[in-house]
């Protein structure tokens, strides 16, 4: 009888780590499957989640950026404003302020838009988005064209700039080269 107990104990000690490893792998794959890809979530679903959890800032930014890209500024603005006023994450706050600044610029109020963008830069001085918006706005004005040109020219050398953004900056610079 004692012999069988040692056999069972040995089998248990030998097999337990194996079953534990299998269980951990299964749990990890289940957790990975539970992560939500926001590309698969509709705007209405995101709005509902945000309504129930108003301080879920990354999702607010994702939704606001969707609206922004659709030029649906009236839907984007409340989300960007909420993040700018309530988030303690300085990068998200800066991004929200820069986006608000661009929307205000698109509405024709350059002075107010510059205030938002400068506030975004005060919070995050290295913000590529805010610097790009500032350069684009300044290059469009005769009295600040040189400053805008210098900002955009400097941004062209930033290795973190995406190819798409680089092409946009180069296109803008080519318009104002003379």
The rounded Rg comes to 26 Å
Distance, first to last CA: 97 Å
Helical fraction: over 70%
CATH class of the largest domain: Mainly Alpha
Supply the helix-strand structural class.
Answer: mainly alpha
Written account of the structure:
- This protein has helices at residues 2-34, 43-52, 57-69, 73-86, 90-106, 110-123, 128-140, 145-155, 163-175.
- The protein has nine helices and no strands.
- It is elongated, with a radius of gyration of 26 Å.
- The chain has two domains: 42-125, Alpha Horseshoe (Serine Threonine Protein Phosphatase 5, Tetratricopeptide repeat), CATH 1.25.40; 127-178.
- The longest helix is centred in the first third of the chain and has 33 residues, at 2-34.
- With 178 residues, it is mainly α.
Short description:
This protein is an all-alpha fold and 178 residues long. The chain is built from nine helices and no strands.
List the helices and strands and how they pair.
Layout lengths: L1 H33 L8 H10 L4 H13 L3 H14 L3 H17 L3 H14 L4 H13 L4 H11 L7 H13 L3
Helix pairs in contact: 2-3, 3-4, 3-5, 4-5, 5-6, 5-7, 6-7, 7-8, 8-9
Keywords:
single chain; 178 residues; mainly alpha; Serine Threonine Protein Phosphatase 5, Tetratricopeptide repeat; 2 domains; 78% helix; elongated
